[in-house]
Design a protein that fits this description.
Structural class: alpha/beta
Number of helices: 11
Largest sheet: 6 strands, mixed
Shape: elongated
Order of helices and strands: EEEHEEHEHHHEHEHEEHEHEEHEH
Number of strands: 14
């Protein structure tokens, strides 16, 4: 499979089975040079399995994939030499000093000796650790650890960086700062392939693939997904008690879908303007206390709930 010009990752009908279980089911996608590509889905959807195949760490059962111009099945070592990788779990050595971790990863990635000082200086400045080279890595705050891990992952300046939910457990401010660094790297031509289940993080991506039960259910920019996925208009409904109100609305006339979002409900209806008054009356007549009912723009979480609900219903219909 030849690598298309400008595409850093090319995947065609990729499959991974573990015995009778299909973890990744015939997925296809392409990323572009300098793109931040998000792989969004719940835990167990197949995100990490896909990443491990694309990094040359796991042999595909079927299908093909190419990363940075190399086939992941036939040339896994060449793939690993041309990528950076950040895992869900902090991957540096906590008992080593900052500078020792940098030297270790520079050696693992075969960073040229003549470039070593400049690369490590860049990593320290990027991580905000200049002057703290002697600090024990395990004593650093979570956000600094993640920035240091990023620096170590790209010391060899790879064209593709894989991030497998590396901001889990990091505070929101550190997470935003981390994303600013990612955007800087993408502007410099690095393709960033990131998995996440944080919906707000997905908004930072240029394009997204939504994966559910091993299959891609949607692909596009965040805006495109919001426009395409919702089969109707979205209402926010505040009603108490919440549980009984949800049960009522799931079978209410004109309601296509209903789900809990925080302390309110999100409803998909054909036309929001004409649905609000009848829904208020419907709930009030059944003893519910109704607060706000207003039309809202769908979030990626709404899109994902809509798509996975639709896919789940289709699976039930196909079951014997």
């Amino acid at each position: 499979m030849a690598n298309n010009n400008g595409n850093s990752v090319v995947v065609e009908n990729l499959v991974k089975r573990f015995g009778d279980f299909t973890a990744v089911d015939r997925i296809s996608l392409e990323t572009r040079t300098g793109e931040i590509f998000g792989f969004l889905g719940p835990n167990g959807a197949g995100k990490s399995t896909t990443i491990r195949m694309l990094c040359g760490l796991l042999q595909p059962t079927a299908g093909r994939a190419q990363v940075a111009g190399y086939d992941v099945a036939r040339e896994p070592e060449r793939v690993r030499q041309n990528i950076g990788y950040m895992s869900q779990k902090f991957s540096l050595y906590n008992d080593l000093r900052v500078i020792e971790n940098l030297r270790l990863f520079a050696g693992l990635y075969s960073v040229p000796r003549q470039a070593l000082d400049e690369r490590m200086r860049w990593a320290l400045e990027m991580a905000g650790l200049a002057g703290r080279e002697a600090a024990i890595t395990g004593t650093l705050p979570g956000g600094w650890k993640q920035r240091l891990a990023l620096g170590c992952a790209v010391l060899h300046r790879p064209p593709v960086l894989f991030r497998d939910e590396p901001t889990s457990g990091v505070d929101p401010i550190s997470r935003r700062q981390f994303w600013e660094l990612i955007h800087q790297m993408a502007e410099g031509g690095v393709t960033v392939f990131v998995t996440t289940h944080y919906m707000e993080e997905a908004e930072y991506c240029n394009r997204l693939a939504l994966i559910y039960r091993g299959q891609i259910v949607a692909l596009g920019t965040p805006t495109e997904l919001k426009q395409r996925a919702m089969k109707g208009e979205l209402l926010l409904v505040e009603a108490e008690p919440l549980g009984p109100a949800l049960e009522l609305l799931q079978s209410a006339p004109g309601v296509l879908d209903a789900a809990v979002f925080g302390s309110a409900l999100h409803l998909v209806v054909g036309e929001a303007r004409t649905a609000m008054a009848p829904l208020r009356r419907y709930l009030s007549e059944r003893g519910m206390h109704v607060g706000r009912i207003e039309r809202i723009r769908p979030s990626l979480e709404d899109v994902f709930v809509s798509l996975t609900t639709e896919r789940g219903a289709a699976r039930k219909e196909q079951s014997p």
